[in-house]
């Protein structure tokens, strides 16, 4: 070997690239492997991560809250709708039950009206005495508790909604159509008319009816001779 110009001699350079140290048996760290961060670098990295994470966590929390609020509002609306439907169903069932009960009661009471008519006639003729009088009073009391009530009195104003006129006459003693005689009592169960009262009706005479037939007769008499009988249009 010849000496170098600077007077120094260098021998061959040998590099041991073995990954395992033959003396210790441990894995050697490669020169390309980055060294671990220093404590200062670790704190800076954690600080940056802490600054970034709250914003993302807040957005995720807000989205979750919005989703839960939407689901809660939807379930609440469903519950309110079901509650309203159930309430309406209960009211409808109760209303139908009451209507069926009233109809059934009215049907039974209507079948007993002829019996009450016989009892009334017997009482009018003085034939209802002794034990039969007690039975009739008990029957009438029970029917009264079920809502049956008679109506129809002499002198009542005639009402075609609740009266049935079997006889008609004129009388100067009345100022309007009036029931002057009750031929058969009427019966009602609550607001339901089971049978109208059958009555004799009297009205004021036609000549005394205000603005009625008397004015029409006077206008006919004042028509010109030779006319067809119709009142003068002038």
Automatic annotation (TrEMBL):
Record region (Disordered): 1-71, 199-234
Gene3D superfamilies cross-referenced by the UniProt entry: 3.90.20.20, Head domain of nucleotide exchange factor GrpE
Gene Ontology biological-process entries: protein folding
One CC-aspect GO term: cytoplasm
Top-rank taxon, per record: Bacteria
UniProt-annotated location(s): Cytoplasm
InterPro entries xrefs: GrpE, GrpE_CC, GrpE_head
Keyword Ligase tagged: no
Coiled coil: 72-99
Annotated Low complexity bias: 211-234
One term of GO molecular function: unfolded protein binding
Biased composition (Basic and acidic residues): 12-31, 43-59
UniProt keyword annotations, A-Z: Chaperone, Coiled coil, Cytoplasm, Stress response
Role description: Participates actively in the response to hyperosmotic and heat shock by preventing the aggregation of stress-denatured proteins, in association with DnaK and GrpE. It is the nucleotide exchange factor for DnaK and may function as a thermosensor. Unfolded proteins bind initially to DnaJ; upon interaction with the DnaJ-bound protein, DnaK hydrolyzes its bound ATP, resulting in the formation of a stable complex. GrpE releases ADP from DnaK; ATP binding to DnaK triggers the release of the substrate protein, thus completing the reaction cycle.
Alphabetized PANTHER family for the sequence: GRPE PROTEIN, GRPE PROTEIN HOMOLOG, MITOCHONDRIAL
Family the UniProt entry places it in: Belongs to the GrpE family.
Subunit structure, interactors included: Homodimer.
Name this protein carries in UniProt: Protein GrpE
